[in-house]
Amino acid sequence: MSELPLRAQLASVLGRSAAGLSRATGRGDGSVIGGKIALKVEPDLLAKLARGRRLALVSATNGKTTTTRLISQALRDLGEVATNEHGANMPTGHITALSNNRSAVNGVLEVDEKYLPQVLVATQPEFVVLMNLSRDQMDRASEINLLAKRWRIALGKSNTRVIANADDPLVAWAGLGAPHATWVSAGQRWKEDSWCCPECGGHLRREQDPYWACPECGLSRPQTTWSVDNDSDVLVTPEGQRIKLRLNLPGDANRSNAAIAAATAAGYGLHPERTVERLREITSVAGRYTSVVTMGVEVRLLLSKNPAGWLESFAVLDPPATPVILSVNAQIPDGKDTSWLWDVDYRVLRDRRVFVMGERRTDLALRLETDGVRFETADRVDEVLAKLKAEQPGLTKVDLIANYTAFQQIRTAYGRVQ
Amino acid sequence: MTNTSALRIVWIYPDLLSTYGDRGNVLILQRRAELRGIATEIVHVHSSDAVPEQGDIYLLGGGEDRPQILAAERLRADGGLIRAAARGACVFAVCAGYQIIGENYGDDEANPLPGLGILDIRSGRGQSRAVGEIVADVDPALGVGRITGFENHQGRTEIGPSARPLSTTVRGIGNDDRTEGAYQGQVLGTYLHGPALPRNPQLADLLLRWRVGQLAPLPPAWGERLHEERLAAALS
Ligand SMILES: [Zn+2]
């Protein structure tokens, strides 16, 4: 990539030194600020930096950071990989990721749902990887039907291969716009945003999960070649090979992410058996699923930003004897509107010890009261642990589910772990 | 399964009109009725089902542009909700639901589309999107006091002579920067989206009172606390 025009090189260097500065001054990981400066100097930089590479763009409401990490881990078998693993998923972050690794032929970029069409045009990726679309921070995010439509149109004008979850009707409908597709049956736990046909609005027939079909216009789930068998923890390949997953990330959602990652890695020529071995090496992604040990108690951190995410977190909670802390804020990155709390069904917490924290704990308290879940309120994690330890000195584990800024506050207070 | 003595709460089209937290309104009505010993029956009506005409309280939630248009078309063709309202049933509609129970509303290119005509309002699109916490004082005739919620809409609504504004805005945009929501008989609509009733227990009680008459008071709980907290936060 040494033949970049001078201006582009300059921009790229500028971007990198600003990123270095931001890292050195401790103001962040540098991935956003670096690219922001670069974009001002050279708007086509992203296109230039992408040229000659084999890129995969990864987008979804949930799991895009994890899946990006999984795919890039698999691709490392082929050499260096350019990737935005710190989650800076807008064009500025993509420029930083690509300019930080000029020699990598392969790249995996996490892309914000809204930016996917423009990043697709700029980077001409070989693959676009799509997992799910559901309601998320609606005070600032786009309507998801509109997003799906924009994806579909952008894919229709591209020459990319889509690797997508056929079990999510909105995602499948968007992916059907692409000229080539690999369909994965990756499952869909949260269905509240896809009861209606994306094509005509008819009420979908979905009696037999994961199949869906529209009785009015005939749109139906595409035939899949890859799938996950959650009950037996197995990935099924297009050849019918059954590969035991045994991931170190918990839950069905991560099995889905792994299946999508394996299908993408296969597009790069990697054998799924080898891919799955590589995927097992990942034990946490940007602090998610890791534990902090404080006051002798292991606190497992689960990040959940929207109703679909909370549903997935509930599914990986420890058995009911393990207490759970829920923490909710409503700052700009979280969305200022807490209405989504009412879309989550909390009744699964009825037989647990539950604590509520965060700036919007009163919203959460009313929500739990309405679902008949008993709870206590608290200001801090150590306050909860002190209380629990006084009652049960042998306590060793607590689960904690938090939304974005609540999660970051707890990570900062109890150590940035990796 | 129909219990003739139970309060029938009908949730209209949760598959089309349930964008963000609309379930909360169903849950709070049910809870505040049952805490007073009033039995409830909850009916979910999908967009492919006929709307039952013998409900007590009909709830309509928010929706994106396309689902809103589909819901309006289907409800007009079905006619059940229009007949229930004519019979005097209570209708509580939020956001996109509020707009479609009116005479007409605007699509994403501001073309007027026909609504159900059970509330004398007309809605179009404003220049800017109204997003944020809203506070408003409800018409004193309703005995509800000050309400608070979150609004997230592009709509602007004009109120005709047969309806009355629900409230006067203290903070936020609502219908037109001056008033928020509208009511006519027991048909009530608002831009307070999602869980408007959980955040305003006294508004939930108004709907219940319309159906069952005088209500026993409930001891203040988390709902009242949340109401106070959000009011204080929005006005600080
Ligand atoms: Zn259809």
Tags for this entry?
heterodimer, A: 418 residues, alpha/beta, UDP-N-acetylmuramoyl-L-alanine:D-glutamate ligase, Protein-Tyrosine Phosphatase, Chain A, 2 domains, six-stranded mixed β-sheet, 15 strands, 36% helix, 16% strand, B: 236 residues, Rossmann fold, 33% strand, binds zinc ion, cell shape (chain A), ATP-binding (chain A), acid-amino acid ligase activity (chain A), peptidoglycan synthesis (chain A)
In short:
The complex is a heterodimer of chains A (418) and B (236). Chain A is α/β, with parallel strands linked by helices. In chain A, 36% of the residues lie in helices and 16% in strands.
Question: What are the SSEs and their pairings?
Answer:
The complex is a heterodimer of chains A (418) and B (236).
Chain A: H1 6-24, H2 31-41, H3 45-50, E1 54-59, H4 64-75, E2 81-83, H5 91-100, E3 106-110, H6 116-123, E4 127-130, H7 144-156, E5 161-165, H8 169-175, E6 180-185, E7 226-229, E8 234-236, E9 242-244, H9 251-267, H10 272-279, E10 291-294, E11 297-303, H11 307-315, E12 324-327, E13 354-357, H12 361-370, E14 376-377, H13 381-391, E15 397-402, H14 404-413
Parallel strand pairs in A: 1-3, 1-4, 2-3, 4-5, 5-6, 6-7, 11-15, 12-13, 12-15, 13-14
Antiparallel strand pairs in A: 7-8, 8-9, 10-11
Chain B: E1 7-12, H1 23-34, E2 40-45, E3 57-60, H2 65-78, H3 80-86, E4 90-94, H4 96-100, E5 104-106, E6 112-114, E7 121-138, E8 146-159, E9 164-171, E10 179-184, E11 187-190, H5 196-199, H6 201-212, H7 222-235
The complex binds zinc ion.
Zinc ion binds at residues 197, 199-200, 202, 214, 216-217, 219 of chain A.
